[in-house]
Predict the structure.
Amino acid sequence: MNQLDYLWDYQKLDLKMEDLKSKKKNSTARKNLYKAIKYLKNQQEDLIKINSIVDKKNHVYNRIYHEFQRINKDLANEKAKLYSEEVKSFKELDQIEKKILETQEKLDKSREELNALIKDMDNINNELKLVTNHLRKGKREYEKHKKDYDLVVEELDTEYSKIKSQRDSIKEKLDKSLLRKYNAVKGNHSMVMAEIQQNRCGGCNMFLASLVIQNVRDNVDAVECENCGRILYLGDNSSAD
Ligand SMILES: [Zn+2]
């Protein structure tokens, strides 16, 4: 085996490693996990929103409730006046009765507000229950998908390190300069080496001069395709005149 044969095998393993990386990235398990995380996050955000609404409503409720109690006390005071000896005239009595009516109206209004708020809070509580259920469901989904993903990762990582150690053992046999060249081309093409097929570069399909092919055959140095820069290779599957 010459240097280019080693490099060809090196490339095969290199590509397999990339494939495993992209398999991990594009795995259904990863996508499912991502979806589960997003769902969970949305529910958590909803929960925070609802909790803040609950806080605000509680605050308003307390304010109106205190107001209600105050009006109620006023009403009781006015009513008590009716039966006290303080009332000295019909005019005064009229005034007290008028005040009682006004206070009663205020009290009714306040009670209505409280009832509306209670209804509101019931609805919010139902929403809260719903979101809490979603959150619980989301957590279960997340745990399930996390487990699945961990399994996939473990499997792919084991395979990856196996391939990597195979690749690295070939790396030791490769000339440093050839490896440098490989890595330089790698920046432009995922397939660094191109097999010659019917006198054409297997990477870009450009027709190759017979001298170029001869140079590859002579294996003097790594020959790059003039057009795409890939390292040309004559392998078992190649065909050249
Ligand atoms: Zn080419």
